[in-house]
Predict the structure of Xanthine dehydrogenase family protein molybdopterin-binding subunit.
Amino acid sequence: MSNEAGIATTAPEPAPEAEPSPLGLGVSLPHADARAKTEGTFPYAADLWAEGLLWAAVLRSPHARARIVSIDTTHAREMPGVRAVITHEDVPGTPRHGRGTPDRPVFASDVVRHHGEPIAAVAADHPDTARMAAAAVIVEYEVLDPVTDPEQAFEAEPLHPDGNLIRHIPLRHGDPEAVGEVVVEGLYRIGRQDPAPIGAEAGLAVPRPDGGVELYLASTDPHTDRNTAAACYGLSPDRVKIVVTGVPGATADREDQGFQLPLGLLALRTGCPVKLTATREESFLGHAHRHPTLLRYRHHADAEGRLVKVEAQILLDAGAYADTSADALAAAVSFACGPYVVPNAFIEGWAVRTNNPPSGHVRGEGAMQVCAAYEAQMDKLARKLGLDPAELRLRNVLATGDVLPIGQTVTCPAPVAELLQAVRDFPLPALPKDTPEEEWLLPGGPEGAGEPGAVRRGVGYGLGMVHMLGAEGADEVSTATVKVHDGVATVLCAAVETGQGFTTLARQIVQDTLGIEEVHVAPVDTDQPPAGAGCRGRHTWVSGGAVERAAKMVRTQLLQPLAHKFGMSTELLQITDGKITSYDGVLSTTVTEALEGKELWATAQCRPHPTEPLNASGQGDAFVGLAFCAVRAVVDVDVELGSVRVVELAVAQDVGRVLNPAQLAARIEAGVTQGVGIALTEHLRTPRGLVRHPDLTGYALPTALDAPDIRIVKLVEERDVVAPFGAKSVSAVPVVTAPAAIASAVRAATGRPVNRLPIRPQAAVAADR
């Protein structure tokens, strides 16, 4: 052919058609927002802006416990640029809030009960002005001696009108007179960890013309937060709206409600949009942490190593307020014996208030603390009996059909033995060479001070379990709507994407069910029906189940006219790779052709089977489902310096069904790495109730350089028949299990008991040194 200038050209060869990308469940579909987050263009709450914006700051208590004599806001109000100063006197509605138990004041009035408790809030035209005005609020305190030892809380004067004891669970299972031929005891302490979200809390409040307010927050449970805010503001829930902005990571209940509530109060008071961006220090002081825990254990076993009885006392430090401590205690007591068959169990559990920072929901709460203790006990038993630690565990592992100490039968898949055998049989990593080129292998890292001759290798095991969804009668329900228009599907569900991959899963469910490639998940706000909190694998199960049901209803709407036309039922039609075909091949068309000119939609709910509260003896069918994990840790320990390097963590996990292989592997690896921090570095120190070094310099998170080789050696896909898709939660159980395995490996390397997490250097110095 020729162009306009008469020059001969050659037509390009048509490009070969690209193979269509696989869609649906079981495929590693990437996150829809992955590119935006990588490039830094994803909008988080800290990026929000509004015309006429004011800035907020909060004054927090410098004391762990004090009586408030007076609050003088005069100087703050008179500062140029200050638009409002509010205290407890300016809360028009319910003055208390709390995730589980509403026992926390919006602003302290008579007393402060923990370091960092909010006293007042300020709105001003510049963030520096707001902070200076907050500092100008004069508070006269009568400082009191804080109660920081949870054991002293039983005898101390009441720190709260509701008393110091939040919950007591006495679990009684089997024969109290049963004894074993071999008995081991231990006392264990678990420190306080912070969820340390990637981004500190931030939010924007915008007043509405009807006298209500809209809150733009990184909330993980927007409807609960909306209801709490409305009660605090003295408004009906329909006049408060929460719009969920980008959540910069969440390993717990992401937002501190004590941060959210002043924001809306200031917007209502000033009539202007108000923005609050917390500093990292404020973030550490405000949100809930993992419960520090004291555990006493006594294990009885027969001469063959089979467990006869477990006795334990578990004390959770809830800090100043209850939050979700009752739930954490239920998990701790229920899983106090681990994934082992224990015919007789007698557990006492308490959660108490102190003047320490508040504790609450952090991934694997309750289960992580007891896992570290019961696995230490299993190591002690193995050593006393002269058995291999893995062999001892295999003789006792739980299986489907066994009964938990709470009396609930395990009806879900429980392949604990298979998981343990997989990590035990996986080849061990090679030993490091004693050469200068390999100095980086020393526990001290590059240029480390240690000597290769002082390094010992240890191998340890951990078996862990967690429950999925809420427990003890919690009404778990989620609602979703699927709409199809012009060949594009949209999912509306108030399940918040916190990084767990729900938006990706929702797209895959619709692709799998309807054969539509282009699927969008709408932003979340409280105008949508509630979906509940984003924790314990809820959204994979409950919200994913709701999306699936809605998509199947749309599928029926799509297929019914075709089935009627050809005189067959919809069950005889299938959708594969965007094509609709009948069982006999008579009908063959594309989903796009079948959808032409149609707009379809359906709304559905998913509600798992009910559970029941634990009774006075700690008995009851309290959990919907369980997930299990086995971890083998290999560590190198400098037994002179006490420094520890995690060489490798081999992981085997029962996942029910792999819905997105890449996403699942990432969640497991992230959970295991979080467990490394819990085991070795993460400890929020609070001497006399005061948070020391509330920043990411003083609080040592593991970095990429601290992450060991993580080998996912086996994923057991035995579907849970009561779960949508048969899938199980995957994020929490490796967090629960990895710290126990690392501690076990350090025990093997040093001969020391290692009864505290995180592991202190003095605990990792060899017993024979």
Remarks:
- Residues 84 and 270 are 7 Å apart (CA to CA).
